[in-house]
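Per reviewer request, we include the raw input and output of the structure prediction for the construct analysed in the revised manuscript.
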Amino acid sequence: MRALALVVLVGCASKSSEPPKGNDYCRKRATYTSVPSPLSGASGSSIPAHTFSIVARDPATGDLGVAVQSHYFSVGSAVTWAEPGVGAVATQSFVEKAYGPKGLALMASGVAPAEALAQLVAADKGEAVRQVGFVDATGRAAAHTGAKCIDFAGHFVGDGFTVQANMMGNDKVVPAMRDAYQTTKGDLAERMLAALDAAQAAGGDIRGCQSAAILIVSGKRTDAPWNERKVDLRVEDSPDPLAELRRLVVHRRAYDRVNQGDLAAEKNDFTGALAHYDAGMKMLPDNIELKYWVGVALASLDRVDEALPLFRAAFADDPAWVELTRRMIKPGLIPDTDKGRANIDRILREAK
């Protein structure tokens, strides 16, 4: 795979008079500079995930995250690591995955990111081709860019975040990521996505785009860490990985509201459930699934007139929703009462 990386690099290293092929977002002319890039020193077990990434802690919520894009298949499976209440790690260039779990274990034991990273780098014979970013639950950050990482390669360590990139089209990528993260408003996902967009706009990976990922966990340590994984999304292979990743983040936000609605419905709080479902539906107004569950919540509150248009849309999309509606009484999603059963009959009669 190292040989393939070299072939691709050499093939892209000189400017061409031909127009860019494929997606213009991923392949742009005049955004890269030709430089020599030695490859010696990589270990045989590493993965050449040349890429750009950000690890960060949200000072408002304490959430910890890592986001990445690369011209490499399934980059998120190798680069992104995070543990609730502990920290986040990006390990890239010629990837040594061990930086992820080992770095998190050291930070969990109280070792500062800079010291944890220094210990792992000192023990790694292939450190010259590694690139790694650490951030912990207090916002301390550290990064390493090996001397033999493929140019353009570099990093910036800021207050509660670090950005790192290698095999970039030019030396503008890292500053663009830094500035976008620091100036963008919004939650942690929005700010990290802005950093990735800025990196791509500045030149990005010299080879183009293929995959992207975002992982966000809570800054809290709890007895149920599986409940503290807030966002875990990957685009494994796409001509527009960042556009697709943003689309998935919107879906994640909408379905988070749906999940909150489900929890409210379990407690028979159908008014609360409706508020959550409705908020999710407004984020994804064309999503049939969300329309359907808003309809169910309305029907459970005996607001069938408002629910009927939503059921009609669902039934027209797929008759399976009709059969599902017949099953709403047993779990109590529509009350098992004379009124509830009458509402089901009316929905099936008038919405089909």
